[in-house]
Every structure is written in C-alpha cells, then in structure tokens.
From TrEMBL, chain A:
Chain ranges of the Rieske domain: 6-110
Molecular function, one GO term: 2 iron, 2 sulfur cluster binding
KW Transport (keyword) present: no
Source organism (scientific name): Gemmobacter aquatilis
Gene3D superfamilies: Rieske [2Fe-2S] iron-sulphur domain
Source superkingdom: Bacteria
Database matches in InterPro entries: ARHD_Rieske_2Fe_2S (IPR015881), Cholesterol_7-desaturase (IPR050584), Rieske_2Fe-2S (IPR017941), Rieske_2Fe-2S_sf (IPR036922)
Protein name (database record): Rieske [2Fe-2S] domain-containing protein
UniProt keyword list: 2Fe-2S, Iron, Iron-sulfur, Metal-binding, Oxidoreductase
TrEMBL record, chain B:
GO molecular function: glutathione transferase activity
Biological process, per Gene Ontology: glutathione metabolic process
Name of the protein described by the UniProt record: Glutathione S-transferase
Species of provenance: Gemmobacter aquatilis
Taxonomic superkingdom: Bacteria
Length: 215, 210
C-alpha cells in the first residue's frame, strides 16, 4: 500500500525549522528535516560516507550535516562540503537518495514510489503523534472501541468521529510490529478538548499494547 | 568562599547532571577526577570514606558532604544561586519541579543502568532495562505533549527549572542503549529548548551542534 502512496511521517509542527528526525516506513529508514527557509525534506537516513544516520546530524542553514565526520549536503541531497578536505570540489556522485515530500493537513508526507497527486489539504489542529507497539491491522481494528468513535476512510488517512470531535489520523506503518498515528483534530479545538484527547490517546496505547502482550 | 568540590567522572551521567546545573547556575566547581572505568576508584577505600555506597557524584561544600544527585542540585541552587529562575518561587511550580526531580531519582535510574549495561558491560538484563527506560521516556513524552497543549515548554511550567536539566541527560543519551529519538517528538522539541538555556554544556556522547 505504501508503494505509490503518500505516507505521513510527522506532524508539521513537530519538525521545527532547522531540525531533523528519523522515521521508519515499512522498514525503510528516512530522515525528515526542515531547512532554514522552512522547506521539509525526506531522504534516505544514511550518509553516503560511512552510513551514519543523517537523522543523528544537524541542520546548518540550508544544509544538513552528518554527525560523524561533518559532511554537508544541500537541499537536493548533493554533498557540498567535506571538512577533512575543505578545498575539495566535491564530486557530483556523492549524494543522498531523496524522495518526494509533501506538506498538507498538518502533516509531512513522503512518497517512496511513483509520486501521486498531492495529499488533500484540510484545516486541522495538531494533537500528537502516537507510537504503538502493534501492527497496522491491530491498531485499526482497535481504534473504534479503544478510542471511542466511528472509523472511516482509508490508510494512510482515516477519520475517527468521537464525542470530542473528528480526528483526522495519518497512519504510518513502521514495520510488522509497530505503527505510528499522527493525530489531528478537524477544525479548531480548545486546549481542554486537546488535553482530554491526549489523555485518551495514552489510555488507548496502554489498552492496545496490553491486549497485544496478552494475545 | 571556596568552590564546592565535585568528585567527578566525565562519562557518568549523574556527574554530568551536577556539572550541567552548576554551569547553568553560574556556580564554579572544583572538579576532582575519579577513575570510575576502568580504575573502579569510586569503590576504593578513599572514596568509600566519603560515600560508603560507592557511587558518584559526591559533592563536598565546606563541611557539607552530599551524595544524592537531586540533593546536590537543590543545594547548589539554594546555597549558591538562590535567585535563579531555575528554582521557582511559587509553591505549585516548585512542587511540580520536585515531582519530576523525584521521578528522575526514583524511576529514571533504569536509564542510567541501561546505558552502563549497554556501554560499559555493567551487570543487568540489557533488554529489560532498555524496555523500562523506554517506558520512562514515554511517560515524559506524554507529559510534554500535554505541556505543549497548555502552552508550557518545560516540565514544571512555562520556564525551565532544575527538573528539566536533571531529566535531559536520560533522553539525550538514550541512543547509547538503543532507544532512538524517532518516537519522542515532544521530547525532541523540549531538548532543543534545554540546549538553548544560558550556560548549557554537553558531555561526551551528547553532540555539541554549535
Ligand atoms: S559517515 Fe557521514 S560524514 Fe562520515
């Protein structure tokens, strides 16, 4: 399902300008980072030099630098600077694999295969990302009762109608055992509503994982 | 006034907590290096005379001898920087700070154990320690999600306290015991705020980005 689809990796608000983070989609390790002009990037999470995770590195202006030996890459993934050889014109062949990225409806999305039309825009309020030790199918099956609401829509974007409002949930299958849900609320939401939903999300994770451990 | 003496090992995360807080408070320490690994000097007779439990950190401040990290942090602030904003004056914020300092002392010890077990071959069940440490980080993440909704950037309120500095090392060092930061977006943003506090310093294993 992720072959030719947009997959959400993070809530937009959680990747601030000048920061990076790691994310995994069906075993594929991805670095998501935001450059100084606010543009998000989704690349393979591997430095071409010695394979260090780029997500351990740090953003410097419009470059991201590897933590290990400081090689710096520009927004296209091209290596631009090697601290051990500051005078060197870096060969064009040294570049990180990049994937298409989109930002819509409060989330950052990656396309690992052919690039589909952009994900739909929506007015949302970010709630949280929830990381679950449970496979995708188990998470979806548990949502209506575990969280309380009516589930609709298709992975990677489902909606859950609850008594506290409609959740728009970006679904990120991490691997066979783990799933991330990027939770947003459709439209505006008060802090009290968001706090109640956050508390419910803690409880949902606990019940889901406890049930999984007992199974 | 002579500077308090910290019996210190650079790679020990509790010693780092003390150095970090002292630096953010602007309090000078005299560091007395202890060869914990491989020398095991903290278990020798001289150090046992100071702390029979055979643990670091140990702080000697005049006649006062302290051996518990959180007590050392409180003492440095109260005795040497009483007007610091890191020590909130209102009762509720201070109580929340104490709550998280106690979490640090009581629950988060598993993170330090997971790390020494993974890195220094200290005894312990690496998998179980890792799982317990991850559970602690999840509690911290859940709390910071809610703090974010309340418009508060730190554990006890809108401003940093000793609790944030005490909690920071466990998250910053979690990759040492194979818990990545992927799952903790709220803690990532919080850690970035902590890094920007005046006086912030790192330790080996915590990269200095600037
Ligand atoms: S591994 Fe990235 S610079 Fe060496």
């Amino acid at each position: 399902m992720t072959e030719d689809a947009w997959v959400p990796l993070a809530l937009s608000s959680m990747i601030e300008v000048g920061t990076s983070a790691g994310a995994v989609v069906q075993g594929q390790e991805i670095v998501v980072w935001r450059d100084s002009s606010g543009v998000a990037h989704t690349w393979e999470d591997r430095c071409p030099h010695r394979g260090m995770k780029m997500s351990f590195g740090f953003v410097r202006g419009d470059h991201i630098a590897c933590l290990y030996h400081g090689w710096e890459y520009d927004q296209a993934g091209q290596c631009r600077y090697i601290p051990a050889h500051p005078q060197l014109e870096v060969p064009k062949t040294i570049c990180v694999k990049t994937w298409a990225v989109a930002e819509a409806a409060g989330m950052i999305w990656v396309a690992l295969g052919a690039v589909p039309p952009p994900p739909a825009e929506a007015e949302v309020t970010a709630l949280r990302s929830l990381y679950l030790d449970a496979p995708l199918a188990a998470v979806l099956a548990a949502l209506p009762e575990g969280f309380g609401g009516t589930l609709a829509g298709q992975v990677p974007l489902v909606t859950l109608d609850t008594d506290l409002g409609t959740l728009r949930i970006g679904v990120q299958p991490i691997d066979a055992r783990r799933t991330a849900l990027h939770l947003t609320v459709a439209g505006p939401a008060t802090p009290d509503t968001l706090l109640a939903l956050a508390t419910r999300s803690d409880a949902f994770r606990l019940s889901l994982e406890t049930a999984g451990a007992a199974a | 006034m002579t500077a308090p003496i910290l019996y210190n090992y650079d790679l020990d995360e509790n010693c780092y907590r003390v150095r970090l807080v002292a630096s953010c408070l602007g309090v000078a320490l005299t560091l007395h290096g202890i060869d914990m690994y491989p020398g095991r000097e903290h278990l020798g007779a001289a150090m046992r005379a100071l702390n029979p439990a055979g643990r670091l950190p140990v702080l000697q401040d005049g006649d006062l001898l302290l051996t518990q990290t959180e007590a050392i942090l409180m003492h440095l602030a109260e005795a040497h920087a009483p007007t610091t904003p890191l020590l909130p004056q209102d009762a509720a914020t201070r109580a929340r700070m104490m709550d998280w300092l106690a979490f640090c002392a009581r629950d988060l010890g598993v993170a330090a154990q997971a790390r020494t077990c993974a890195m220094l071959d200290a005894p312990g069940d690496a998998q179980a320690l890792r799982a317990s440490a991850r559970a602690c980080l999840r509690l911290m993440e859940d709390h910071m999600v809610k703090q974010g909704i309340r418009g508060c950037g730190f554990f006890a309120g809108p401003a940093a306290t000793l609790a944030d500095l005490a909690l920071f090392p466990a998250f910053a060092l979690s990759r040492d015991f194979n818990v990545d930061h992927d799952e903790f977006p709220a803690l990532r943003l919080w850690a970035r705020r902590v890094r920007r506090l005046p006086g912030f310093i790192t330790m080996p294993g915590i990269p200095d980005y600037h």
